Amino acid sequence: MLAAMTPQTAAAVRDYHSPIPLFTSGAEAAVHGLRDLAQNWSQGLADQVGGMSCSW
Questions:
Q1: pTM for the model
Q2: Cα separation of 32 and 24, whole Å?
Q3: Predicted pLDDT of residue 12
Q4: How many CB atoms are located within 10 Å of the residue 54 CB?
Q5: With helix as H, strand as E and coil as C, how does 28-45 read?
């Protein structure tokens, strides 16, 4: 699909910077995501998750 992209679009994609801070790695994102899970586990999170159903 790059062949159909104009030079201006390619430059805009190349130079884009997200206005939202991103994690520097997947590991950093995982630590962030698990932080609240670990903090709330003893506060009944297991009960909340236990009530969820799965369709697969």
A1: 0.39
A2: 12
A3: 96
A4: 4
A5: HHHHHHHHHHHHHHHHCH
